[in-house]
Amino acid sequence: MCGIVGYIGQQGAASILVNGLRSLEYRGYDSAGLALAGDGGPLRVVRASGKLANLAGKVDLSDPAPLGIGHTRWATHGRPTEENAHPHRSGDGRVVAVHNGIFENFLELRQELKAAGETFQSETDTECFPVMVAHLMKQGRPFPAAFREAVGRMRGIYALACLHAEDPDRILAARSGPPLVIGLGDGETFLASDVVPLLPHTRRVIFLEDGDLAELTREGAQITDLEGNPVERAVHTIPYDPVAAEKGGYKHFMQKEIFEQPQALSNTLLNRLPLDAESIPLDLPFSDADLRGLSRIHIVACGTSWHAGLVGKFLIEQLSRVAVEVDYASEYRYREPVIQPGTLLIGITQSGETADTLAAMKEAAARGARTLAICNVMGSTATRQAEATLLTHAGPEIGVASTKAFTTQLAVLTLLALKLGEVRGTLDPDLKAGLLQGLRELPAHLERMNALEPRILQWAQRWKDADDFLYLGRGPCYPIALEGALKLKEISYIHAEGYPAGEMKHGPIALIDKNLPVVALMPHDAHREKTLSNLQEAAARDGRILALVTEGDTGLAAIAEDVLEIPAVHPWLAPILYTVPLQLLAYHIAVLRGCDVDQPRNLAKSVTVE
Ligand code: F6R
Question: Rounded to a whole number, what is the distance in angstroms from the first to the last CA of the chain?
Answer without folding.
Answer: 12
